[in-house]
Amino acid sequence: MRPRSQPADDAHAFAIAAESAYRPMVRYAASLAGPDLAPYLAEDAAQEALVKAWRYLDSFDGRGSLEGWLLRICRHCTYDMLRREGLHKDRSERLERPQTVRPHAAVDLEILVDGLPLAEREAFVLTQVVELGYEDAAAVLDVPVGTVKSRVARARLQLSRELRTAEVS
Question: pTM score, two decimals?
Answer without folding.
Answer: 0.74
